[in-house]
C-alpha cells in the first residue's frame, strides 16, 4: 500500500487577534496591580488607623480561610474544564468533613485527611455516573448530591458519634470527638523580625512586613499542600498531553472524540479529581480549622469556591486571587470586625470612583453614573458612622462575592461545552 502525495499546502495557523493582545495578563501587569493594591490598602490603613487590615494575624487568618475556598474552586475548575458543571462541591466538602472527622479521631489525622479525600472522590464519582453516563442535567445532579451528602452525614454522625467510646471522648450527634493536630511550620528568626517591623506601623513597609509575617508564621502543612496542588494543576492542565485532552473535552467533545480521545474516561477522571479536591477542602475544615467534624461547618464555602473559580476565569492564578480575596473578607469578622470593615468602606469608595472614571473613559455613561452614585452613598455611610453593625460584618464575604461576580462578569469565558450533554459516538 503506497501513500499518495498531494500538492495541497498545509493549513496555516489563524492569525492572532491584535485587539486581544493588549488584554493579556502578563506577569509585569499583575505585579503592578498587586503593588498598586498594596499602596492603596496602606493609605487606607494610615488614614483610618485600622492597623488590623494588614497585620500578620489578619493575613494568617485569611490564609486559613482561603484554603478550603481555594480547594473547592480548584475542584470546580478540574470538573468544568472537562465540561461537567459541579454544583455539588458543597456536598463533596461535607462528605470530606465527615470522613476526616470519623477516621481522624480514631487514628492518625493524616489517615483522616486521606479518608476525607476518599469520601469526596466517592461523591465525585456519583456525580460523574449520573451526568456523564446517564446524561442527567448537571445542576440537578449537583443539587441532589448536596442534599444527599447533608442527610447522609447527619445520619452517620448520629450513628457513630452519639454513643459508645465516641460519646465518652466528646462526640455527640452533631460533632465528632477531637482529632490531633496535623502540625504547622514557622520560619524561625524571620517571623520575629517581620513582627518587629510590623509593630512600628510604618507606611507600606510595615504593611508588607505584616503580610509576609502572616505567610511564614504557623502555616499548616495542608496549606503548603494546597499551594502545591494549585501549581501542579496549572502545569498538568496547560502543559501536558493529558491536560490538553481533558480541556478539549470541555471545549468540543465531538472533535476530541474524532481525534481518538476517550471523552468518557477523561470526564470521569476530572470529576473524580474534583471530588477529591473538594473532600480535601472539607478535611481541612475538620482537621486544621477546628480539629473536629461539626455539622454545617462548610458554611457555603463550596458555593463561594465556585464564585472564586468564575472570578478567576476558570484559571488557577485568578482562582487563587479570588480565594484570597474571599478569605480576607471572611477573616475581617474575626479580628475587630466592625471597625475594620468600616475602614474598608473608604477603600470601596476609592475603587468605585476609579471604576466610574474608567467607565466614563470607555463611554459607558450609565455604568459610570451608577458607580459614582454608589461611591457617594458609601462615602456618606463612612463619614456618618464609626463602625459597621455586626450583622453586616457577618455577611461581608457574601457581599464581596456578589460585588466581585457583578464586576467581573463582562470578561468571563467559560469552556464552550461546559454543562452540555454528551453521548458517545457523536463524533462518528
Short key terms for the protein model shown above:
428 residues; two-stranded antiparallel sheet; 69% helix; disordered N terminus
Overall description:
There is one protein chain. With 428 residues, the protein is an all-alpha fold. The protein is 69% helix and 1% strand. The chain contains 19 helices and two strands. The chain has helices spanning 18-21, 27-48, 56-81, 89-104, 109-133, 138-161, 164-168, 190-198, 205-216, 221-239, 241-251, 253-258, 263-289, 301-311, 316-332, 337-361, 365-384, 390-394, 396-408; strands spanning 184-185, 219-220. Residues 1-23 have low confidence and may be disordered.
Multimeric organization: single chain
Give the strand content: under 5%
Q: How widely separated are the two ends? A: 25 Å
Order of helices and strands: HHHHHHHEHHEHHHHHHHHHH
Uncertain parts: 1-23
Strand count, sense and barrel status of the largest sheet are: 2 strands, antiparallel
What's the Cα radius of gyration? 24 Å
Shape type? globular
- Which strand order do you get reading across the main beta sheet? 1-2
Q: Can you give me a brief rundown of this structure?
A:
The chain is mainly α. It contains 19 helices and two strands.
Walk me through the topology.
Blueprint: H1 18-21, H2 27-48, H3 56-81, H4 89-104, H5 109-133, H6 138-161, H7 164-168, E1 184-185, H8 190-198, H9 205-216, E2 219-220, H10 221-239, H11 241-251, H12 253-258, H13 263-289, H14 301-311, H15 316-332, H16 337-361, H17 365-384, H18 390-394, H19 396-408
Antiparallel strand pairs: 1-2
Helix pairs in contact: 2-16, 3-9, 3-10, 3-13, 3-14, 3-15, 4-5, 4-6, 4-13, 4-14, 5-6, 5-13, 8-9, 10-11, 14-15, 14-19, 15-19, 16-17
Amino acid at each position: 500500500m503506497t501513500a499518495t502525495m498531494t500538492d495541497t499546502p498545509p493549513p496555516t495557523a489563524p492569525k492572532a487577534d491584535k485587539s486581544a493582545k493588549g488584554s493579556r495578563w502578563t506577569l509585569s501587569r499583575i505585579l503592578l496591580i498587586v503593588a498598586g493594591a498594596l499602596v492603596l490598602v496602606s493609605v487606607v490603613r494610615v488614614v483610618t488607623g485600622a492597623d488590623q487590615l494588614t497585620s500578620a494575624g489578619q493575613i494568617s487568618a485569611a490564609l486559613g480561610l482561603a484554603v478550603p475556598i481555594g480547594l473547592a474552586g480548584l475542584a470546580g475548575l478540574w470538573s468544568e474544564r472537562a465540561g461537567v458543571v459541579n454544583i455539588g462541591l458543597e456536598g463533596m466538602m461535607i462528605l470530606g468533613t465527615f470522613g476526616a472527622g470519623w477516621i481522624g479521631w480514631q487514628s492518625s489525622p493524616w489517615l483522616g485527611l486521606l479518608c476525607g479525600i476518599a469520601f469526596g472522590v466517592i461523591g465525585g464519582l456519583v456525580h460523574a455516573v449520573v451526568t456523564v453516563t446517564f446524561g442527567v442535567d448537571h445542576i440537578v445532579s449537583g443539587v441532589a448530591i448536596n442534599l444527599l451528602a447533608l442527610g447522609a452525614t447527619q445520619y452517620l454522625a448520629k450513628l457513630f458519634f452519639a454513643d459508645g467510646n465516641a460519646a465518652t471522648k466528646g462526640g455527640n450527634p452533631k460533632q465528632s470527638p477531637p482529632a490531633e493536630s496535623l502540625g504547622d511550620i514557622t520560619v524561625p528568626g524571620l517571623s520575629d523580625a517581620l513582627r518587629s517591623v510590623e509593630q512600628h506601623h510604618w507606611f507600606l513597609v510595615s504593611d508588607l512586613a505584616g503580610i509576609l509575617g502572616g505567610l511564614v508564621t504557623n502555616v499548616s502543612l495542608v496549606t503548603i499542600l494546597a499551594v502545591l496542588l494549585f501549581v501542579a494543576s496549572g502545569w498538568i492542565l496547560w502543559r501536558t498531553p493529558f491536560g490538553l485532552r481533558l480541556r478539549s473535552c470541555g471545549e468540543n467533545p465531538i472533535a476530541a472524540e474524532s481525534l481518538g480521545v476517550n471523552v468518557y474516561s477523561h470526564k470521569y477522571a476530572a470529576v473524580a479529581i474534583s471530588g477529591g479536591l473538594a473532600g480535601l477542602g472539607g478535611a481541612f475544615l475538620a482537621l486544621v480549622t477546628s480539629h473536629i467534624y461539626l455539622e454545617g461547618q462548610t458554611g457555603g464555602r463550596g458555593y463561594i469556591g465556585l464564585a472564586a473559580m468564575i472570578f478567576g476565569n476558570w484559571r488557577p492564578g485568578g482562582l487563587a486571587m479570588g480565594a484570597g480575596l474571599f478569605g480576607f473578607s471572611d477573616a475581617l469578622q474575626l479580628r475587630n470586625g466592625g471597625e475594620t470593615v468600616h475602614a474598608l468602606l473608604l477603600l470601596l469608595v476609592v475603587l468605585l470612583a476609579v471604576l466610574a472614571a474608567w467607565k466614563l473613559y470607555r463611554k459607558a455613561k450609565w455604568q459610570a453614573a451608577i458607580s459614582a452614585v454608589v461611591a457617594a452613598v458609601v462615602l456618606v455611610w463612612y463619614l456618618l458612622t464609626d463602625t459597621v453593625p455586626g450583622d453586616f460584618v457577618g455577611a461581608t464575604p457574601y457581599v464581596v462575592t456578589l460585588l466581585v461576580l457583578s464586576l467581573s462578569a463582562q470578561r468571563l469565558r467559560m469552556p464552550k461545552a461546559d454543562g452540555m450533554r454528551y453521548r458517545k459516538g457523536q463524533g462518528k
